[in-house]
Amino acid sequence: MSSFYAEVLGQNGSYKFFLDNEWRESASGKQLAILNPSTNAPVYSVQACTKAEVDEAFQSAKRAQKTWARTPLWRRAEFLHKVAALMRENAQPIADVLVKEVAKPAVDAYTEVVRSADLISYTAEEGLRYFGEGKLLASDSFPGQDRTKLCMASKVPLGVVLAIPPFNYAINLAVSKIGPALMAGNSVVLKPPTQGSVANLLMVQCFAAAGMPPGLINCVTGRGSEIGDYLTTHPLVNAISFTGGDTGIDIARKAGMVPIQMELGGKDAAIVCADADLAATASHIVKGAFSYSGQRCTAVKLVLVEECIADELVPRVVEGVKRMSVGMPEDNKQITPVISESSANFIEGLVRDAEAKGATLCTGPFRREGNLIWPVVVDNVTPDMRLAWEEPFGPVLPIVRVKDTQEAVEHVNANRLALQGCVFTKDIDRAIAIADAMETGSVQINSAPARGPDHFPFQGFRDSGIGSQGVTNSLAFMCKTKTTVINMPKPSFTMG
Q1: Which one of 121, 181, 240, 296 has the fewest beta carbons within 10 angstroms of its own beta carbon?
Q2: Cβ count near 358 (within 10 Å)
Q3: Catalytic member of 101, 112, 126, 263
Q4: Which residues participate directly in catalysis (predicted)?
Q5: 89 counts as catalytic
Q6: ω before 453 within 30° of 0 (cis)?
Q7: Which domains are delineated in the chain?
Q8: How many other CB atoms sit within 10 Å of the CB of residue 51?
Q9: How far apart are the two ends of the chain, measured CA to CA in Å?
Q10: Among residues 55, 50, 44, 53, which one has the least CA distance to residue 10?
């Protein structure tokens, strides 16, 4: 590990947590082991923070926020640019940790860190524009009113933002919350995912080394089952930005009046029309379904193909899948172990259910070694199978044959998960009509779903999320409107 990160590591080999610009070991005396998904063996450990330490983190963040809110915008932007530069300079150690913590292929892990630095830089510049503008209203624009009031509307910070990213993009989805929060004048309490904690701690060191004021970001580690509810219901929380699964629904129920920004699961469907370019469609589907072993909220998780072309499309998809490399993330294989044994068991259960009910495993018998699952294409999936509705979050692609696109759209709209979708057709008018009918947060035309570029709006409908993300939308979430009204005497003259 680079000397840049030396102080993050404790003498007992466990990584410290970060509070008030100090790297600390928890008073609990306990550590949380992090398993390498490739081996299921412990690879790192982090502090198991106490509720008292959570209290201290929020109190520190509250103090820091008051000062940070008065910091000029250009200084906030300058600070974020320094952070981005440090992340680029120290990207490799963070990427190396991601390989071991979440089994992300080495090249993809490095790309994620650099992409995250770019997101921070963009946020700094967009924040200058967004928060640099106010609004002036005159009272006489409303019927019956004289010009006796001027209303100045400005954007002010929310306060302390609780940021909770997921394991699959532990760095990118952390900075997508932290960057807008800081640019808006907020402070942050960061709760990293267990798998991804060490990468987050190394990322926080980049913020600290950039000259961060004490308490602006505090990072607490530990099991969500032990401190999760305490964090999300803490009286000093002023906003929550969460990315993950069904846990988010529980958080939303308990959050009360606290503003929430959430992106949860997805069952992103690809609707393939009879006139689609099947070679290109198959290529997009394979990449969209199996990148990072399908552990992406925006992965293609269902194909709804018109019956008349299904027999031609499926072999093309299977051919592309069979060319994919399978193995360890250090070797940059395309299919790597999924995040945990419980996840692998869940994925296998979905496949076994479909197979038992008559589906066809086009890629051959189900194959698994530990958490490593060989990619599976499951054809002839029907609505009575769990794979038709549930999100595997692994290298599994179910295919449902439909009589027409209306049946496909009805299936999409019947699912409680409604994050993204895509449509493949050569007819742009048809594509727009289908996209309009799909009740999902985003629809891609002739490409697989994707979150980025990071400044595009990104949101889910129904149980897939609350609010919208993307840099500008996240900046908007991280502030509230305040109005100051100047009262003036009624004009004493009239225009002749």
Answers
A1: 121
A2: 11
A3: 263
A4: 263
A5: no
A6: yes
A7: 3-264+464-481 (3.40.605.10), 269-445 (3.40.309.10)
A8: 14
A9: 79
A10: 44
Q: Which string of b and e fits 176-188 if b means at least 16 CB within 10 Å?
A: bbbbbbbbbbbbb
pLDDT score recorded for residue 491: 75
> At CB < 8 A and 24+ separation, what contacts does 40-44 make?
40/341, 40/370, 40/371, 43/100, 43/101, 44/14, 44/15, 44/97, 44/100, 44/101, 44/197, 44/198
Give the contacts of 198 (CB within 8 A, at least 6 positions apart): 15, 34, 44, 46, 97, 101
pLDDT tens, position by position, 403-434: 999 999 999 999 999 999 999 999 999 999 99
Rounded to whole angstroms, the Cα distance separating 272 from 181 reads: 39
Question: pLDDT tens, 114-134?
Answer: 999 999 999 999 999 999 988
Cα–Cα dist 184/172, whole Å = 19
Instruction: Collect all residues with Cβ–Cβ distance below 8 Å to 130 and sequence separation of at least 6.
Output: 155, 472, 475, 476
